[in-house]
Specification:
With 346 residues, the protein is an alpha/beta fold. It has two domains: 3-145, 3-Layer(aba) Sandwich (Rossmann fold), CATH 3.40.50.2000; 176-345, Glycogen Phosphorylase B (Rossmann fold). 34% of the residues lie in helices and 14% in strands. The protein has helices at residues 12-16, 19-28, 66-78, 92-103, 115-122, 135-145, 197-208, 222-234, 247-254, 266-272, 325-328, 332-345; strands at 3-7, 33-39, 53-58, 84-87, 108-110, 180-185, 213-217, 238-240, 259-263, 278-281, 301-302. Helix 3 crosses helix 4. The longest helix is centred in the C-terminal third of the chain and has 14 residues, at 332-345.
Amino acid sequence: MARILLIRLSALGDVAMVVPVVHSLAVQYPQHQFTMLSRSGFEYLFANLPSNVSFVGVDFINVYKGLPGLKSLYVELKAMQFDCVADLHDVLRTKYLRFRFWLNGIPMAHIDKERKEKKRLTQPKNKVLKPLKTSFERYADVLRKLNIPVTIDFESIYGNERGDFSKLQDIVNAKQGGEKWIGIAPFAKHQGKIYPLEQQEQVVAHFANRPNTRVFLFGGGLKEKAVFQSWVDKYPTVISMAGKLYLDMELNLMSHLDVMLSMDSANMHLASLVNTPVVSVWGATHPYAGFMGWGQSPENAVQLNMPCRPCSVYGQKPCWRTDYACMTNIAPKLIIDKIEQILIGE
């Protein structure tokens, strides 16, 4: 039996993209023990994986702060006697950890983020507009370097089932006969990835008035809660889940949705982990950068063909046009039609 340490510290969406790879590893190598090192709070992503997967959560703010904290973390990890280390993140903290393991003679490999290729994809002029490797493929490449080749074969953290709805019954009433459930996650970290709220409300209003349909809103910040409350007040069939669910229950509820509408954000990846179809909206970013949710159809990606996009890998750069036309010019009907196609096609 080999003990393999896998490291991916953040962010939520990127860590969620590790799950299909780790699940496949665990199934294909039942004789090995895989330990996932990530931030505390993400353990629910790995809770339903095979028994040869364990999770170590770290708190870099209160427990493993600064260089002394990293040294302490390394000492604890060293005591677990890993046979090799896969760095799926390649940031300063993980570089330090893998360097210490290397000094101790432990084989290690790290991710190639294809920075040059991503720069060509997003440069203002002479873009090289072609699909890059997905994050899933790049994670798998790290394992191949360690002579642990993996074929990614994953359906859902719940297998071919949905989450246990009995755990949600105190929060959400069960589906009525033929009722359709739609999740909407309208926010993202950066403006370049957010469809204008005025236009999103038109989408919400359409499905709020759709017969035998319930709409669930996903998000958690103060701004999100305020926007959600304004929509809930207007549309009685809309339910805000902000602040009501921990990550495990959020995944559970997502598994019972018929479709999720999400930006290029963590919610797209969470819904993907429970095999829920996602209509995703892309502005400054592009699926070609490799961040489409696992198993999601490119046909369900809503985006405009514009010479300036993608202008960013992560959506954090300000729009050089200043008008974010890649988002504002998307008609709500385009999104509504994509969702309706999924609902009708089921």
